[in-house]
Amino acid sequence: MKKRDFNEGLLGFLDASVTPFHATQNITAMLKNAGFIELREQEKWQLEASKKYFVTRNDSSVIAFTYPKNNTSYTMVGAHTDSPNLKLKPNPVIKEHGVVKFGVESYGGLLLNPWFDRDLSLAGRVSYLRESGEIASSLINVQKKIAIIPSLAIHLDDKANKERTVNKQTDICPIISTNEDFDFDTFLRWQLENHGVSDVAEIYSHELSFYDKEKASYVGLRDDFIASARLDNLLSCYVALLAICSIDASKPMLFVASDHEEVGSESVSGAAGSFLESVLRRMFEDYEAYVQMTRSSMMISADNAHAIHPNYPGKHDAKHAPYINKGVVIKVNANQRYASNSETIARFMQVAQELGEPLQHFVTRSDMGCGSTIGPITATRIGIDTIDVGLPTYAMHSIRETAGSDDAYSLYKILVGMSL
Ligand code: ZN
Predict the structure, then answer these.
(1) Superfamily designation of domain 85-212
(2) What per-residue confidence (pLDDT) applies to 71?
(3) Are 57 and 269 in contact (CB under 8 A)?
């Protein structure tokens, strides 16, 4: 696959994957196209050698794996499906000052300022009672630009550029209409109907998030950059997905994309939960074989890395400051916020060097805190040797992040190389 085709596919994936549910739906559709067979956790598994499988949990996390005859040493890639956003509260409707607005909670550590003055839409999962008496859930994506969070004009706050802060309860409620007859239940029923669901007796609950309607795109004189929402971490999801789709079932490879990384991974579908361990245990019925596999496999935890910001260079350690389009970043932290160690780094570097792919190194400044990833969580939970890598990114956790148009393809080639 050529880099341009790879990146075109990436732009489409980013636009279509507006929530972890939609990301999972798109990932599973691509896995099916590539010959992966769906398993359900609730049913008995009878795995056959030389086939490829996938399984989802909570519609928002997915694990795909090949199942070769000799499967003692897996190359695993871990990423996450969720991104920081504004999430609708259970009773969201607020009618005041001539408008209808929605009450929201912030999900994850999002940069709030970039959410102002954007054309927003809404998507997620709705759970309801069918007229037949059964409970069902459906994904919806409103698609239309239905909301905006207007800034307060500078004339009404002359300290706006120096001192303005954002209150999460009062300042970021998206406004959706001037029609004060608006009814939320009717709105949800109408959305479900648009998605082919017309037998709704009662709507019980929803998990809906706002997203930016601006599409992912190239930016820069030579299309140097890719700007989009949710690059953290759909970028890694896409790279890992294409890697596992392009190898055949004779190579042991596993891809896990988990929800809830941005809020600490502790959930039924998060990396601190039982999903991966439970799948691995079922792949290796015999505990002895399971332990042998975990101790001879390697996890590549792929998440974005902070590129040195050209206007704020002092925020990086000068010797560990990744550039955009200069290659995949290996992330190290003495306090184990990243799981890389010298041996996993060596294994990764050997493959990258053989392929001629450049690498960079990131260590956070010693006087600053360090983010973390699913890497240390998975290493702890499963006991698998792990490396943390990532693609250089500006504006992480903004509603629009920026990465390079060369780096994702480079990671893809290394991941394929690791599994051969
Ligand atoms: Zn991330």
Answers:
(1) Aminopeptidase i, Domain 2 (2.30.250.10)
(2) 76
(3) yes
Inform me whether the pLDDT recorded for 299 exceeds 80.
yes
The CATH code of the domain at 3-83+229-419 is 3.40.630.10
Dist. CA 261 → ligand 1 center (Å): 7
The predicted-structure confidence for 191-202, as pLDDT tens digits, reads as follows: 999 999 999 999
* Spacing, Cα 124 to ligand 1 middle (Å): 20
Name the pTM for this structure: 0.97
Ligand 1 geometric centre to CA of 72 (Å): 29
Per-residue b or e along 238-260, where b marks 16 or more CB atoms closer than 10 Å to that residue's CB: bbbbbbbbebebebbbbbbbbbb
CB atoms within 10 A of CB 407: 30
Instruction: Summarize pLDDT for 249-294 with one digit per residue, the tens.
Output: 999 999 999 999 999 999 999 999 999 999 999 999 899 999 999 9
State the DSSP H helix or E strand holding residue 87, giving kind and residue range, or none if neither. strand 85-96
The DSSP element (H or E) to which 374 belongs, if any, is helix 374-382
Instruction: Please provide the DSSP assignment of 154-202 as one string.
Output: GGG-TTHHHH----TTTT-PPEEES-TT--HHHHHHHHHHHTT---EEE
The tokens describing 324, both together, are 């955009």
Phi, psi of 329 (to 5 degrees): -105, 130
Predicted confidence (pLDDT) at residue 37 exceeds the cutoff of 90: yes
The contacts of residue 387 (CB under 8 Å, 6+ apart) are 298, 299, 300, 301, 330, 339, 340, 341, 344, 345, 347, 348, 375
Q: What are the angstrom distances between the C-alpha of 6 and each of 1, 61, 81, 235, 404?
A: 7, 23, 19, 11, 13
Distance 396 CA to ligand 1 centre (A): 8
Ligand 1 centroid distance, CA of 79 (Å): 8
Closest to 378 in 3D by CA, of 241, 275, 283: 275
CA 197 – ligand 1 centroid, Å: 34
Cα(384)–Cα(19) distance, integer angstroms = 29
What is the CA(62)–ligand 1 centre distance, in A? 16
The residue-averaged pLDDT of 341-359 equals 98
**Distance in Å, CA 307 to ligand 1 centroid:** 14
Residue whose tokens read 């140097």: 224
Element (H, E) at 384: none
The answer for residues whose C-beta is within 8 angstroms of residue 352's C-beta and 6 or more apart is: 327, 328, 358, 359, 414, 417
For the chain, what are the domain ranges? 3-83+229-419, 85-212
Residue 1 has, within 13 A of its CA and on its CB side, a CA count of 20
